[in-house]
């Protein structure tokens, strides 16, 4: 059942928390009929309690539910690296690091960029995904565009020309393989 690992029935909460269940359900918006498709997604409800003793009680309840959740079958894990999504994240982290003057964020963006290019770039063209040591699937336009954007963000954050050169190379690959000569614009998939 989709989401089963993360959601709670009213009875689950009562069983796990006993006398703390009612205050916990009030604090986290859990209802007998559920707040989503018959079950509860726990969301802290405003206003937050200011009472330290109550907050301690809620913290213990959260720990109890977390321990109970760990006994459930975990969902399958999708741990592949995608060029396009990483490009978006790299650009955001590089910009945030530069704007907020947090060098470690810029460094994290640099490391992620190096990983993606080191594992997904083949003959000046990206692959779409990497998982368990293998780069797979031809890249989409979004892969090239997002990684080019990441390279530009890193260039802006570091002023290193190598990132600008890499952005140009990624755009050149997009122009060479995704450009629509007949109508203009770009195709999502490459010409080959």
Number of strands: 4
SSE series: HHHEHHEEEHH
Helix content: 40-55%
Mean pLDDT: 95
Spatial extent as radius of gyration: 24 Å
Using the alpha-carbon principal axes, give the shape: elongated
| Largest beta-sheet details | 4 strands, antiparallel
Point out poorly predicted stretches.
none
Strand fraction equals: 5-15%
Give the helix tally: 7
Distance between the termini: 39 Å
The assigned structural class equals alpha+beta
Structure overview:
Helix content is 55%, strand content 8%. By secondary structure, it is an alpha+beta fold.
Question: Topology, please?
Answer:
Blueprint (H helix, E strand, L loop, with lengths): L9 H8 L3 H8 L23 H18 L11 E2 H17 L3 H18 E2 L2 E7 L2 E5 L2 H18 L2 H18 L14
Antiparallel strand pairs: 1-3, 2-3, 3-4
Helix pairs in contact: 1-2, 4-5, 4-6, 5-6, 6-7
Short description:
This protein has about 190 residues and is of the alpha+beta class. It contains seven helices and four strands, in the order αααβααβββαα.
Question: What would the keywords be for this entry?
Answer:
192 residues; 4-stranded antiparallel beta sheet; 7 helices; 55% helix; elongated
